[in-house]
Amino acid sequence: MEIFENGSHKIFLGDAIEVLESQIADSSIDLIFADPPYNIGKSFNGYKEKWQSDEEYLKWCYKWLDLCIKKLKPSGSFYVMTATQFMPFFDIYLRSRINILSRIVWFYDSSGVQAKKYYGSLYEPILFCVKDTENYTFNADDVLVEAKTGAKRKLIDYRKNPPQVYNSAKIPGNVWEFPRVRYRMKEYENHPTQKPITLLERIIKASSNENDLVLDPFSGTFTTSFVAKQLNRKSIGIELQDEYVKIGLRRLKIQEEFKGEKLEREIRTFEINKKQEVEPLTLFETSGAYIYSRDKANP
Ligand SMILES: C[S@@+](CC[C@H](N)C(=O)[O-])C[C@H]1O[C@@H](n2cnc3c(N)ncnc32)[C@H](O)[C@@H]1O
Q: Tens-of-pLDDT digits for all 299 residues of the chain?
């Protein structure tokens, strides 16, 4: 296990269960967002996440779910994701251990290849839980969305006395539409299941306050910590893979190098092409012949 730290932001390179057990004080975290491997055979930097059986996967999940609950403050909130087929098990397991307030559907459209002989999956479930229903943070005003019905059509609500125009903003319901992170998006990192900044912004704004401590036990590209930093929260991120910790170190500006390697954002193919488009051709003379090149140092 290795620890990297810069002021209010800490990264653990190691196993989530081990770190939660040994490094995180009980009842110390305000908000946990957990987005584990889904047991669907994705490859995380060459490591295929597939357990021997569904039971084995769930047994592993129950361990860290218990730990997350233990590490939350009495006023803490917990958001947890998994594949649609495992969420019912999470739901039943968590029901007797914490209060589930919302069963959220993160919906996205997909222009990619879709299933041809069944209905393709266009959503991922998220549970929103709190330890104490009488004492938890919910900053409704910070996450308001446009109310599309009455207000947009400038309707008057005559049931009110006196009659009033409809509210133009409302608290989001439990179906959230945010685009998935695409290759050409500015926030894109090289990771198969990167979550969008917009999704984490809603969660962190609603369920924490400035200076609160936010923890993500399966950080991947460290979206949670990145957004927490932008919103002036403190963060703890845990991740098993060096490659992804490097992304976190860079995104959080904790350090510029990792084991002697300079941490730089990977250049995407369209960025290379774009560079070539703007770089003018220059005429060089080499060994008596004239050539055009964009590379001045090595024509
Ligand atoms: C679904 S991804 C998380 C993506 C992340 N939410 C983001 O926005 O990029 C799950 C991550 O958990 C990591 N992981 C898998 N097993 C782990 C373990 N035992 N401890 C810590 N991290 C683990 C994987 O390497 C992967 O990056």
A: 999 999 899 999 999 999 999 999 999 999 999 999 999 888 888 888 889 999 999 999 999 999 999 999 999 999 999 999 999 999 999 999 999 999 999 999 876 667 889 988 899 999 999 999 999 999 999 999 988 766 667 778 788 888 777 778 899 999 999 999 999 899 999 999 999 999 999 999 999 999 999 999 999 999 999 999 999 999 999 999 999 999 999 999 999 999 999 998 888 888 876 655 666 777 777 666 777 666 666 66
Distance 19 CA to ligand 1 centre (A): 13
pTM: 0.88
Residue 15 Cβ contacting ligand 1 at under 6 Å: yes
Residue found under tokens 């002021």: 7
Domains of the chain: 2-137+174-266 (3.40.50.150), 142-172 (no CATH)
Q: 């993160």: which residue's tokens?
A: 106
Give the mutation target among 195, 239, 243, 252 for probing the ligand 1 site: most ligand atoms within 8 A of CB: 239
Of all protein residues, the one whose alpha carbon is nearest to atom 4 of ligand 1 is 220
Expressed in angstroms and rounded, the spacing between residue 41 Cα and the centre of ligand 1 is 13
Distance from the CA of 244 to the center of ligand 1, in angstroms? 9
**Protein residue closest via CA to atom 3 of ligand 1:** 220
